[in-house]
Design a protein that fits this description.
binds adenosine-5-diphosphoribose, 14 strands, 330 residues, alpha/beta, Rossmann fold, 9 helices, L-2-Hydroxyisocaproate Dehydrogenase, Chain A, domain 2
Length: 330
């Protein structure tokens, strides 16, 4: 139904971001297409949806469906499906979801061989066509693939970011809200380390209405929520026969919005750390840490008020990530 009222909030967001261009590589896929829709829906921008020539028809059809969905929502965003990398030229943000997802029973780490080559090739294109872009990587094993992008593009470390902690902390918050029968918006959670078996949920900086969660729930319940958070991706993969697609797409879209609108919000992200300040001892690695996102990508890396047990788990995750990094042949 046509309405005559102008929604000034949407109009302001539209004016601020309409000139912005975001490219999603791997857009015909499950995560990519969800990311395209959510980015376009929330930002009024141009989204270039890139995939390989073999996926061209499917991509075109899927993006038409998404464009119709945007019309339903009166969104002014535009989606451009393409298999031509030149179309991504001068994008402000590039999201990489290209590559293989895991199958039931696989770990994310087992994808390293097949995905490293794809990510290397994609990085060359980003360097060529979008020298000033901020890049967000979702392809698994996430932390290691972000490392490949950094090295292959030669971009500054604030401009290459991995999406993991936003998803993992959302899964942790969901489980806590169920267990505590609490509103999800009242829970803040921190999940750091690697996006794998060694992810580190940080109970001491997880709160309900600002109260530390360890003070209001039993150790047994908290442990159960942490174990389920670590296994959440595998649980979905086992049930569906393929890995999750909606929550990862939405999580990256939230990060893209923070960058396009320069919101300076805090996120758990995978960031490049090289013996930097608080994270001394973590050398030449992407690893999950809290950070502030804004127009420059990572504006600031934050430190964590953690206990010794958490610090130990974080160091263990760093060691495993270093082993994976060393297995790369760049
Ligand atoms: N360039 C562009 N796109 C590519 C390339 C490439 N070189 N290689 C593969 N793709 C595309 C595929 O054509 C496909 O459309 O990447 C897309 C991947 O989509 P899916 O197979 O549906 O995988 P998805 O579930 O979206 O997961 C993608 O994100 O969460 C991670 O573990 C997951 O590594 C996986 C990635």
């Amino acid at each position: 139904m046509a309405g005559s009222e102008v929604n000034f909030k949407n109009l302001r967001s539209f004016q601020r971001t309409m000139a912005k261009k975001v490219t999603v590589i791997g857009a015909a896929g499950g995560v990519g297409s969800n990311a395209v829709l959510e980015i376009a829906r929330n930002n009024a921008c141009t989204v270039v949806a890139l995939d390989i020539p073999e996926a061209a028809d499917f991509l075109k059809g899927r993006m038409l469906d998404l464009s119709h969905a945007l019309a339903v929502m009166n969104s002014e965003s535009r989606i451009i499906p393409t298999t031509n990398y030149e179309e991504m030229k001068n994008s402000d943000v590039v999201v990489i979801t290209a590559g293989f997802p895991r199958k039931p029973g696989m770990t994310r780490e087992e994808l390293i061989g097949v995905n490293a080559k794809i990510i290397s090739d994609v990085s060359e294109k980003i360097k060529q066509f979008c020298p000033n872009a901020i890049v967000i990587v979702i392809t698994n094993p996430l932390d290691t693939m972000a490392y490949v992008v950094l090295k292959k593009t030669g971009f500054k470390q604030n401009r290459v970011i991995g999406m993991a902690g936003e998803l993992d902390s959302a899964r942790f918050r969901y489980l806590l809200s169920q267990k505590l029968n609490a509103k999800i918006g009242h829970i803040e959670a921190t999940v750091l380390g690697s996006h794998g078996q060694e992810m580190v949920a940080v109970p001491e900086s997880t709160t309900l209405n600002k109260k530390p969660v360890p003070d209001i729930m039993s150790e047994e319940d908290l442990d159960e929520c942490i174990t389920k958070t670590v296994g959440a991706g595998a649980e979905i993969t086992k049930l569906m026969g393929r890995s999750a697609v909606v929550a990862p797409g939405f999580a990256v879209a939230k990060m893209v919005s923070a960058i396009l609108n320069d919101t300076r919000e805090e996120f758990c992200v995978s960031a490049y750390i090289n013996n930097d300040g608080f994270y001394e001892g973590v050398e030449d690695l992407f690893i999950g840490v809290p950070a502030v996102l804004g127009k420059n990508g990572i504006e600031r890396i934050l430190q964590v008020d953690w206990e010794d047990a958490t610090k130990e788990k974080f160091s263990k995750a760093a060691k495993s990530l270093a082993t994976m990094r060393d297995a790369l042949k760049l």
